[in-house]
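Both lines are given unchanged directly below:

***
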Amino acid sequence: MKPNYYTIEQMLGMIDEPNRSACTRILMDNRKLFQTVQGSTNNHQNWLGGYFDHVQEIMNIAVILYERLGSIRPLPFSLSDLLLVVYLHDVEKPWKYELRDDGQLHHKATMQNKEDHQRFRMAKLTEFGVVFTPEQENGMKYAEGELNDYSNRRRVMGPLACAAHMCDVASARLWFDHPMQENDPWPGARRIRD
């Protein structure tokens, strides 16, 4: 039997307070924007509304991954922690592109690299009252990998960031075209814009 495919709202309900309320406000205030922009310009969930679909997909992957890994060995973070990080890991995306005269999305001048993204992301989340523990902040910073911070002398990515990265890679590189528009094999999974 396949597991449930949850809605974003159901999974936001799995996040502990005070961040549950802040995350819900982010969705309520920006739902139309989130359901309009693409997940990426080319590589994953690159259809209208793909951003929303990517976030919902990655959160569902997080629920499954957390349950499966946690059944093997104890995890040093909660499902709430993982859902918080994967929900917010790309929150800058709806604001980082502009549609130009050529009909293509282009990065805004203020959003050219990962450091710009992280600065915008953290400012936006502070605006909504999201509060991170040090482990959650590490998860936010390294959900997309260690990039230029990699070192063979010290561990940069914490366990929570590692799990978030696994979820993101699964959504963006394994199931980059999911949820499918019709007949997705995961019961209940569907694109927000049919």
Notes: Helices lie at 8-12, 19-34, 50-72, 79-88, 93-96, 114-127, 134-142, 159-174.
